[in-house]
Design a protein that fits this description.
- The complex is a heterodimer of chains A (553) and B (213).
- By secondary structure, chain A is of the alpha/beta class.
- Chain A has 13 helices and 16 strands.
- In chain A, the strands form four sheets. In chain A, strands 1, 2, 5, 6, 7, 8 and 16 form a seven-stranded mixed beta sheet that branches. In chain A, strands 11-12-9-15 form a four-stranded antiparallel beta sheet, covered by helices on one side.
- In chain A, α1 runs parallel beside α13 and α7 packs across α12.
- The two termini of chain A are 25 Å apart.
- Chain B contains seven helices and no strands.
- The chains are: A alpha/beta (553), B mainly alpha (213).
- Chains A and B meet through α7 and α11 of A and α1, α5, α6 and α7 of B.
Chain lengths: 553, 213
């Protein structure tokens, strides 16, 4: 029997894979997508419209869930969706938390939606400050792809004319709340920008999708698709084209090669039967997320590729970067004590942000190189989590909880780590996951530059609180542990020199011309911005380049 | 899905249906303690600015799953001392003791912390007033709590238990419908536009109306 042959095998259906699938199918390519878990049903799986008292454990989760939760987002509302079964290991001295969503659509089901473009200042950072390498692409080249992505997914913001934040094609911005105006005024006094975030949340109906209804529980999934995720925005159209087959509950094990060492397909494990299968294609797109993609390539050993496919440079898995996250300051606004409640939590994350303001004119103005951004949060949330800051009990205690309800404020830093030889992913020599696939092993710690940003961020946020008339209540004792941000980059980084980089400027591997990468692993570093919109823009560019190559072949 | 554009009314109806799915048996007050809790009219179309209300069930007597009847009465009383009914409902109205019992029953690490703590409080009561906690009038009970409630206390074991009971009382109260209504909880409501600060011309919020609470 002749082998069934697809045009392209795509591993992963998140932002990168979803964009590749959508682009390829629209162009007429026959695509087989491999996905690690099941499809979600928005009506059953998204419990975002349940009140806490509709949840069995009031949203706090069962004791088992609380013990095993991977943290923020992995809670009673999303129980059973985040991946807990596929093990990974950490090298001695490495702490790493890793929330992986293997459901169809991946992390786009639950993402934070902040969507700022990377800028020329990011791509040319090495030229400016001498550290590491420039990106092999200019802002001018990628800008049209950002514009197309913004039109597809809908991003709300304003034109801001900042050197580190190129403006895009935006829907009307979210409105500022009381806390935003207060912090905006404080920021003006001390020179910290406080502006509407770029947020992929549909403030008006857009491209056939309904406008947001501002219920505030976006990170538990949107049951009407009022923010971008691939199951709401890309996969239905791709399936309608008749060119897509999605195989669910399968784990990509390794890339298959032909006698010339080119990619021939993918070997995968069916998670229900634990049987191994193979699927064949003219090209393979890896979009399993930064660490998983590196793991798949490293596990693809053959006589051609003794160190893993496309790894003649030895750089597969190296150069792991991540965003340092952490609470740089907490406080409260005395001016809002006892004021009526206001719906502050309507985006479940960020209406405003403080985009990078450091090292803009002079790359070495600060003690650290590059820069960070900060997300503010506050106002009336659901649960009054400040309850333990108040002493006592009884009527006065109850009154104080009520009086303080509109007042809390906190800041969360997003600071990029810089490339280092000691931060990387390899394959654990012993440990395998439950399907016998060798596990990823993570080696990571924050570099000094990133920790200097953390210290700088704490001082800046304390200053902003004082300038805004708030009471300062301290900062977190330490940043969150690495992996918290879900913004890993760098393990298959792109660059011109095949000896130093895994992928070229189009996300095609230097060694294997029919093997492409469509996730954040191609980014040489992680900048101060979130990754999703850039994954989409770069994946769109890579996918169109792939189509051209298929046509030529 | 893509290419479908449900209008606003359809979206709102959909949300109401989603809210109606949830039902948990066995609780009397904690989930749905509210005056209009059994009003089916509240289950229909959701209007802008309203919350979709949850499914309801008929009241019955709650049977503690972990605490003995004596312990349960004490938990109930402690929760009410911590969040009393005043001009708004208190912990008892919101069924906080049911919540604490349920959470404790499902968590073996929590069980000794509560049980030992209740015994400790009874021992303090006996030493100070010659009777167990529940045999004392409320002002004496309040005195006993005051002795363990503040950072300044030397009774570290007593304070540990106080903080535990207070934490679970707060958790239970402010996740009940009654507690969230008391905060005028603005979440999970539906808006046509993202709500904007109503204090135009006062960005620093230095000239707000006098505090309401």
């Amino acid at each position: 029997m002749p082998k069934e042959m697809y045009d392209v095998i795509v591993i992963g259906t998140g932002a990168g894979g979803g964009m590749a699938i959508h682009t390829l199918c629209q162009a007429g390519a026959k695509v087989c997508a491999l996905n690690g878990s099941r499809r979600l049903d928005p009506k059953k799986d998204f419990r975002n419209h349940r009140q806490p008292y509709d949840m069995k454990y009031r949203g706090f989760g069962s004791p088992k869930l609380r013990r095993e939760s991977i943290g923020y987002m992995d809670n009673e509302y999303t129980e059973g969706i985040w991946e807990h079964d596929i093990v990974f290991t950490t090298a001695p001295g490495t702490e790493w938390t890793w929330r992986r969503c293997f459901a169809v659509g991946g992390k786009t089901n639950f993402w934070g939606r902040s969507s700022a473009r990377f800028a020329e200042i990011d791509f040319r950072a090495a030229t400016r400050d001498g550290y590491d390498v420039d990106w092999p692409i200019s802002y001018e080249e990628i800008a049209p792809y950002y514009s197309r992505v913004e039109r597809m997914i809908g991003v709300a913001s304003t034109v801001q004319n900042r050197p580190s934040n190129p403006d895009g094609d935006y829907l009307p911005a979210m409105n500022f709340r009381c806390i935003d105006w207060i912090l905006h005024s404080g920021g003006q006094k001390i020179g910290i920008p406080y502006l509407p975030d770029r947020i992929a949340q549909l403030t008006v109906p857009h491209a056939g999708h309904p406008g947001c209804h501002f219920c505030a529980n976006c990170t538990e999934g949107c049951d009407v698709g009022a923010f971008f995720s691939t199951p709401w925005f890309f996969l239905p159209e791709a399936e309608k084209s008749g060119n897509l087959e999605i195989r669910t509950n399968v784990l990509a094990k390794n890339i298959l090669t032909d006698e010339n060492g080119r990619a021939a397909g993918v070997a995968y494990i069916d998670r229900k039967t634990k049987q191994e299968h193979e699927v064949y294609g003219k090209a393979v797109v890896v979009a399993a997320s930064c660490v998983e993609s590196a793991r798949i390539l490293l596990n693809s050993k053959s006589s051609h590729w003794p160190n893993g496919i496309a790894n003649s440079s030895g750089q597969v898995g190296r150069n792991l970067c991540d965003h340092l996250y952490g609470t740089t300051a907490r406080g409260y606004f005395p001016q809002l004590l006892g004021q009526p409640s206001f719906p502050d939590g309507v985006s479940a994350s960020t209406i405003a942000w403080m985009p990078r303001w450091q090292n803009l004119e002079n790359p070495k103005q600060e003690k650290f190189i590059r820069g960070y951004s900060v997300y503010p949060d506050g106002g009336c949330a659901g649960f009054p989590s400040y309850f333990d800051l108040i002493e006592g009990f009884g009527r006065e205690y109850k009154r104080e909880i009520k009086r303080r309800y509109p007042t809390p404020v906190s800041f969360y830093i997003q600071a990029p780590s810089q490339r280092s030889d000691s931060n990387y992913v390899d394959i654990d020599p012993v440990v395998k996951d439950m399907y016998g696939i060798p596990a990823a092993r993570i080696h990571f710690e924050w570099d000094q530059n990133t920790l200097l940003m953390w210290e700088h961020g704490k001082q800046a946020c304390e200053d902003l609180l004082h300038a805004s008339g708030a009471e300062y209540l301290g900062a977190a004792a330490a940043p969150d542990i690495p992996g918290t941000s879900l913004h890993e980059t760098g393990t298959l980084r792109m660059g011109h020199d095949p000896k130093k980089f895994v992928t070229n400027r189009f996300g095609q591997t230097h060694d294997v011309p029919n093997l492409y990468v469509c996730d954040a692993s191609v980014f040489p570093n992680c900048t101060d911005k979130t990754t999703t919109i850039s994954i989409l823009a770069f994946s769109l560019r890579t996918s169109e380049y792939l189509i051209e190559n298929l046509k030529r072949a | 899905m893509a290419n479908q554009s449900p209008d606003r009314r359809e979206v709102l109806e959909m949300l109401a249906r989603v809210a109606a799915v949830s039902q948990f048996p066995g609780f009397v007050r904690w989930a749905f303690g509210a005056e209009d809790a059994n009003d089916p009219m509240k289950m229909g179309t959701v209007h802008e600015g309203q919350s979709p209300l949850s499914a309801q069930q008929k009241p019955h007597v709650y049977q503690p799953q972990f605490f003995t009847p004596t312990e349960y009465a004490m938990i109930d009383q402690l929760s009410e001392l911590i969040i009393p009914a005043d001009d708004t409902p208190g912990a008892r109205d919101a069924g906080v003791s049911e919540f604490i019992d349920f959470m404790t029953a499902s968590d073996t690490t929590l069980q000794p912390r509560f049980r030992d703590g209740l015994q400790l409080l009874d021992a303090r009561a006996t030493t100070k007033y010659g009777a167990v906690f529940m045999k004392l009038p409320e002002d004496k009970q309040t005195e006993l709590l005051r002795a363990v409630a503040y950072k300044s206390t030397s009774d570290t074991e007593g304070r540990k238990f106080f903080l535990l009971v207070r934490e679970y009382t707060v958790m239970g109260y402010y996740t009940s419908r009654i507690g969230l209504e008391q905060l005028d909880y603005p979440g999970l409501k539906l808006y046509a536009q993202s709500p904007a600060c109503p204090h135009e011309g006062d960005p620093e919020h230095k000239h707000l109306p006098p505090p309401r609470y």
